[in-house]
Design brief:
Layout (H helix, E strand, L loop, with lengths): L1 H32 L8 H20 L4 E2 L2 E2 L1 H27 L1
Antiparallel strand pairs: 1-2
């Protein structure tokens, strides 16, 4: 059973890292949007390609995501990421500890 525990620990670690990096990608996109970047810049295009699916879904499904001309979807996405880190990653880590 320790193999399954180690596997789940690895999955939890990788998932936690991916969520952490994605959170920073969202933060970088939000900060860059304040300075009106060149839309043809490759870095800006990559940031948009990585974050648009999540942020557009939040804007479509949550009516208050754009309030008073201010886009709150990055904040909502970060809160969802925090929730996933606590609920999903935490649960996987607990399951792994029980199998050790």
């Amino acid at each position: 059973m320790f193999v399954a525990g180690n596997f789940l620990s690895g999955v939890a670690y990788v998932l936690d890292t991916v969520l952490f990096l994605y959170m920073w990608i969202i933060i970088i996109r939000a900060v860059i949007s304040w300075v009106n970047p060149d839309p043809w810049n490759p870095i800006v295009q990559i940031l948009h390609r990585l974050t648009d699916p999540v942020l557009l879904t939040i804007r479509q499904r949550i009516p208050f995501a754009i309030a008073g001309g201010m886009d709150l979807s990055p904040i909502i996405a970060i809160l969802i990421i925090y929730f996933l880190q606590i609920a999903v990653v935490g649960t996987i880590k607990d399951m792994a500890m029980q199998l050790h």
